[in-house]
């Protein structure tokens, strides 16, 4: 139980929150989307266009298993593969950043860098509903981010982690061990 995995729909704030947590905890973080773009030297929309979603999911699973930073922002579709959920469960704590469809729409507007957000409103809503059930099923902790600024979301995450004594104990151990090295 050493890694914090942030999951949630596109625009729920995984990348933003991972970066902020890493500053606060003075720990490194990784982002599966950024890592895919770095490793395969291609932008995500280009991977979708040239190789399709299935190839992207293969890259995503590979990248996830190669990361061991203490804080990891995942891509919105990480839950599409059961093996990814199992991996995260075995290696850390899964925090689901919840945001309503309305809130996500406000944040992303007509973002062009997320291929699956480029679909029709109806398709976006169907995907949102399907995914919501998937995030809920795998989450150890759920934090509602609606109408909360980044710092408030961070505070809520810290509170939840503090309540989760089991996690905190193991996390302290990791920090102590890494400082002894
Ligand atoms: N709590 C928040 N309140 C308002 N805006 C936010 C909040 N968190 C993130 N944002 C904004 O929403 C947008 C999307 O955030 P971010 O890229 O962190 O989402 P994500 O969950 O990583 O999405 P993806 O799954 O596509 O990688 C950014 O413009 C970011 O500044
Ligand atoms: O929700 C999704 O399936 C995606 C979310 C993004 O983070 C990227 O991983 C990509 O655009 C796919
Ligand atoms: Mg992101």
* Mean pLDDT value: 92
Please count the beta strands (DSSP E, at least 2 residues each).
Answer: 5
Number of helices: 8
The CATH topology? Rossmann fold
- Termini gap: 19 Å
The CATH class turns out to be: Alpha Beta
Give every kind of bound small molecule, once each: adenosine-5'-triphosphate, (3R,4S,5R)-3,4,5-trihydroxycyclohex-1-ENE-1-carboxylic acid, magnesium ion
**CATH homologous superfamily?**
P-loop containing nucleotide triphosphate hydrolases
The helix-strand sequence is EHEHHEHEHHEHH
Fraction of residues in β-strands = 5-15%
The biggest beta sheet is recorded as: 5 strands, parallel
Within the largest sheet, what's the order of strands?
Answer: 2-3-1-4-5
Q: Which class best fits the helix and strand makeup? A: alpha/beta
């Amino acid at each position: 139980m050493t890694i914090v995995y942030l999951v949630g729909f596109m625009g729920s704030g995984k990348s933003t929150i991972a970066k902020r947590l890493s500053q606060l905890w003075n720990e490194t973080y990784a982002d599966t989307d950024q890592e895919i773009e770095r490793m395969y030297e291609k932008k995500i929309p280009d991977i979708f266009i040239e190789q399709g979603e299935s190839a992207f999911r293969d890259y995503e699973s590979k990248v996830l298993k190669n990361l061991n930073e203490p804080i990891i922002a995942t891509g919105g579709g990480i839950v599409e593969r059961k093996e990814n959920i199992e991996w995260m469960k075995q290696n850390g704590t899964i925090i689901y950043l919840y945001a309503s469809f309305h809130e996500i729409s406000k944040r992303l507007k007509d973002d062009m860098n997320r291929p699956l957000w480029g679909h029709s409103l109806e398709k976006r809503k169907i995907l949102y509903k399907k995914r919501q059930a998937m995030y809920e099923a795998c989450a150890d902790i759920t934090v509602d981010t609606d109408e909360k600024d980044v710092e408030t979301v961070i505070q809520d995450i810290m509170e939840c982690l503090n309540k989760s004594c089991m996690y905190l104990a193991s996390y302290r151990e990791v920090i102590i061990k890494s400082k002894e090295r």
